[in-house]
Amino acid sequence: MNALVLRLLPFAALAAVSACATDAPLAREGYPLSPALKARESVALEAGLVRARADLACPAATAKLVSAQRLKPNFPGPRVQSPDRGEFSVEAAGCGKRLALRVICAEDTTDCYVGDAATR
Fold first, then answer.
1. Which helix (H) or strand (E) holds 114?
2. CATH second-level architecture of 25-119?
3. 79: pLDDT confidence band, cut at 50, 70 and 90?
4. Strand 62-70 vs strand 85-94: parallel, antiparallel, or unpaired?
């Protein structure tokens, strides 16, 4: 029994360490957006504006880009690597309401995904 426990101990330690890892996006200090992600800023802003106009029920809503950061890769391994992604924070206002949105754009696509929306 002790031999089996000793064989499985490294796997248990790996599982415990990976359980502590977070999936929260991390900004890399000194690691700016790539040129391809920088080019996605206008697409991200437009995607956020379309969502904001729908959520606020206000066709006159306007939006501005507040911040942008490069996200850590989903699969940072040597064999499998996810495309670089940027997270763009967009603030929208209109009809007396405000909305904060997170827009995620991948480097290798032309579309962006509008994630969280928080009314302010």
1. strand 112-119
2. Roll (3.10)
3. confident
4. antiparallel
